Amino acid sequence: MSILISYIRNSMGSKAPSWSDQWGGNNFGVEGDDDKAGTNKGKGSGSSKKMAEAKAMASAGLGKAKAAAAVGADKAKVAAIFGAQKVKSGTSLGIKWVKNQYQKRTSK
């Protein structure tokens, strides 16, 4: 088993580049990737421009957002009130039903 491991280490070690070859010289990749790095910079400026536009739109529409949030909060409040009323009436009907069933059994 140890012979196989030493064979693999020797055969792979001679073909693979060293750590310093891969990562040395402040390059985070292969030397041929320099031309690709320039194309990514152009894409980043477009996305930052879109982000700036989105922030401007968000700050301009802040009053509208607050109004929409107030309307949404009012709708949620109304829905919660109706839901609570349904629970209350359902509980009341359930308790009355249990009382009636108990009275029917005890009167026999």
UniProtKB/TrEMBL annotation:
Keywords: Transferase. One of its GO terms (molecular function) is transferase activity. The keyword Transferase applies. Residues 13-50 are annotated as: Disordered. Residues 39-50 have a biased composition (Low complexity). It comes from the Eukaryota. Transmembrane segments: none annotated. Residues 13-25 have a biased composition (Polar residues). The keyword Transferase applies. PANTHER family: EXPRESSED PROTEIN, OS02G0740600 PROTEIN. This is CDP-diacylglycerol-glycerol-3-phosphate 3-phosphatidyltransferase. It comes from Trema orientale.
